[in-house]
Design a protein that fits this description.
Number of strands: 31
Number of helices: 12
Mean pLDDT: 82
Strand order of the largest sheet: 19-20-21-22-23-24-25-26
Structural class: alpha/beta
Strand content: 15-25%
């Protein structure tokens, strides 16, 4: 039987092993990097109970902080990510059907669209249809008298099979519910269950009495009007029944600002930019020296402001700045004062001038909000170390016991990842640190930023991000909240609980494996990105922020010896409809060339200073990016959808629809010498092109070709003699 659904369900995890070990649970609770302790009792049995919202969660056991142990035999195992992870279904079905009533798997939109995503074991029979039947209640469809019910006719919704991977197959179903169903009211209920296989006409003929009887029985047990507002029965053909709550409809409140559609973000590491201020930086070192954790180069906001026109020429639509607060380190993610702008980069005056100039040029400005942790030198933490439990700032931090001893791994206070020098703030509802962090965010909004990059989302409760969103959006309705989400559980922070868009690290990893490292072929690449996109949930493309690298990772160019791979990867990235992120210096092929880093946040060799200004005019990659961003503005913006029409070996062909034709992007990583020239070559390489279409070359390089096909009478072509 499935676990009963509800807002949260208690779920107990048990591990049996030898006595005397340190055992933890790791998984989507909420993040793999933070183990949940499992106390031992009785001997050799370790357990912990978590309260989980409906959903499908992956997990493992961690013994002595080093050894990952798979769930015991008989557990449900997921191998889609290339390893064996346990699965727990909360409030959902059991295998062979994988489905849960969370926003990863079911969503209702305000316009009535009803979308269902699911998975099924590849050896099992995939459902062919999703049956919907239901009713509307008081005040709906013009009926305002009591609980008389009007029946929505039964609907058969075809199920569309999707990608198969590691023994499971994905599927999707979508339907538009009748407009008379009031989906904006309180949550009602779904009942998912088997229908007998009568014809649709037979169901519709005999449905009304049956539904009214069932609804009346349910209403007798439910909480009056609220439960009656929207009740829908749905069934996957051939699978058992269960009941779950109807999700609140996804509204415009949960959509990103319109300017995010097709945006090209450009991330600037402030210290790694050049310096324009006449005042020297007291710790700046020569830019020829190797980049390290403690090395400052002295970049400032004035230089960024002066260089904004060059970014506009590059086709950038928004810049993302690393934190601006005073800090002992070049990256400034360990703030000393969250309410001020570091004088070493120009102070508040320079920051406001940068925002003003960017807006004059049509650029948006996103500021990095790092408020989940601070420096160990932050005055509040210093006071705690000095006064311990008597400190007025003790409630600011997540302290487990006193006395607080600094800089000890596995110490008695919580800190960011494995960095005891970065104590975590207590951002629970009753903590004064929460009000302080919110004030810091609103200060940035007041200064005019267009968005906030929310650093380390998993290090604060969801309620904090929800409150921050509500307050920030009340000041700036079109403010973007961009979440740094390293795992694929971005959905838990989505919409009214925090973010408009999330970083997609899974897509980035697949791009690295295909374009840079040749570890997978085109078919495997498209399978991976399609599978991961489905698992993320039924979000609009603007929810996913795609990138080849960022300031926490190795650079793309450091992972490949073939210089032609970067232009090919950029063409793929900018051809897609999602917003994209470019890291500063990509246009100069900036990279350390040292290969993979051991972990995120350890990419100091790749945090290189920008080249001198004299290098600006010799950037071939800059010219390539300018061509791609110009096409993105003028052509790609008119295109809809994205499909893969060919994925074999090292060749990938993607298409997007236009009103009068389509676009075709071909990337061939095996054949780096072929280049299409003129219509004669086009006819030669496009023998299946339909009659009555005209084709033109929009972009061409050694291994990348972008063609535009236009429907209409074939034009006269000049042929070679």
């Amino acid at each position: 039987m499935p676990i009963s659904s509800g807002p949260e369900t208690p779920v107990r995890f048990v591990f049996h092993g030898a006595s005397g070990h340190l055992v933890s649970l790791v998984g989507d609770f909420p993040d793999w990097k933070y183990p949940v302790s499992m106390p031992e009792a009785p001997t050799g049995t370790y357990s912990v109970e978590l309260r989980l919202e409906p959903g499908i969660y992956r997990y493992k056991f961690l013994v002595d902080r080093r050894h990952y142990v798979d769930p015991p035999e008989g557990s449900i195992i997921d191998r889609a990510e290339g390893m064996a992870n346990g699965l727990i279904m909360v409030g959902g079905t059991q295998p062979p059907l994988y489905f849960a009533p969370d926003r990863r798997h079911v969503v209702v939109y305000e316009d009535g669209r009803f979308v269902v995503l699911g998975e099924i074991d590849a050896h099992a029979e995939i459902p062919t249809e999703l049956w919907l039947r239901g009713s509307t209640a008081m005040g709906l469809c013009g009926n305002a008298d009591g609980f008389d019910l009007e029946v929505i006719a039964a609907r058969r919704v075809p199920i569309i099979p999707g990608v198969e991977r590691a023994g499971v197959r994905q599927f999707r179903a979508e339907h538009r519910l009748p407009t008379c169903a009031d989906l904006s009211g309180p949550r009602g209920s779904y009942v998912v269950g088997p229908f007998d296989r009568r014809t649709e006409e037979e169901l519709e003929d005999g449905l009304e009495d049956e539904l009214e009887d069932e609804l009346e029985d349910e209403l007798d047990e439910a909480d009056g009007e609220a439960a009656a507002r929207a009740a829908i029965w749905c069934s996957f053909t051939g699978y058992p029944s269960f009941a779950f709550a109807l999700p609140a409809p996804r509204s415009a409140f949960g959509q990103p600002p319109s300017w995010v559609d097709g945006a090209v973000f450009y991330a600037i590491f402030i210290d790694r930019w050049r310096r324009a201020s006449p005042e020297p930086h007291p710790r700046a070192q020569p830019r020829s020296k190797r980049s390290t954790r403690d090395r400052f180069y002295g970049g400032d906001l004035l230089a960024i402001t002066e260089d904004l026109p060059k970014l506009v020429e590059l086709g950038i639509t928004a810049i993302v700045l690393t934190p601006v607060h005073p800090s002992p380190t070049p990256h400034r993610y360990d703030g000393l004062d969250l309410l001020s702008v570091d004088p070493l980069i120009g102070g508040e005056r320079a920051f406001r001038e940068l925002i003003k100039t960017a807006h004059m040029l049509g650029l948006k400005v996103v500021a990095d909000l790092s408020v989940t942790h601070v420096s160990e030198r932050h005055p509040a933490f210093v006071d705690v170390l000095e006064n311990q439990a008597e400190s007025a700032f003790a409630p600011w931090f997540r302290i487990r016991s006193f006395p607080v001893v600094p800089f000890q791994t596995f110490g008695n206070y919580d800190y960011f990842c494995d960095r005891p020098d970065l104590p975590l703030l207590n951002l629970e509802a009753d903590s004064p640190a929460r009000a302080h962090a919110t004030e810091a965010a609103l200060r940035l909004v007041e200064m005019g930023v267009d968005g906030l990059r929310l650093d380390a989302l998993n290090d604060a409760p969801v309620s904090f991000w929800a409150q921050l969103r509500a307050q920030a959006r009340s000041v700036r309705p079109d403010l973007l909240l961009l979440g740094e989400v390293v795992t694929d559980r971005a959905v838990r922070f989505a919409e009214d609980r925090g973010i408009d868009a999330a970083t997609d690290f899974q897509h980035r990893e697949a791009m690295i494996e295909f374009f840079a490292e040749d570890r997978i072929d085109a078919a495997e690449f498209w399978n991976k990105v399609s599978f991961a996109e489905h698992r993320l949930g039924p979000f609009d493309p603007s929810f996913r922020l795609l990138f080849l690298d960022n300031h926490d990772t190795e650079r793309f160019r450091s992972l490949t010896k073939d210089a032609s791979r970067l232009p090919a990867a950029l063409a793929y990235l900018l051809f897609r409809p999602e917003p994209v992120w470019l890291t500063y210096g990509t246009e100069f092929e900036l990279h350390a060339g040292l290969g993979r880093v051991q972990r995120l946040d350890d990419a100091w060799s790749e945090r290189l200073p920008m080249p001198e200004e004299s290098a600006v005019d010799v950037s071939r990659h800059g010219a390539w990016i300018r061509r791609l961003t110009a096409l993105r503005r003028s052509v790609f913006a008119r295109a809809a959808g994205l499909c893969c029409t060919h994925a074999l070996g090292r060749k990938l062909v993607l298409e997007r629809e236009l009103d009068d034709g389509w676009l075709r992007l071909t990337i061939d990583l095996e054949n780096s010498a072929r280049c299409l020239i003129g219509h004669l070559e086009l006819e030669r390489f496009e023998p299946d092109r339909p009659e009555g279409t005209e084709c033109s070359v929009l972009l061409s390089s050694k291994n990348t070709e972008l063609l535009q096909f236009t429907r209409g009478p074939p034009a006269l072509r000049e042929r070679a003699p």
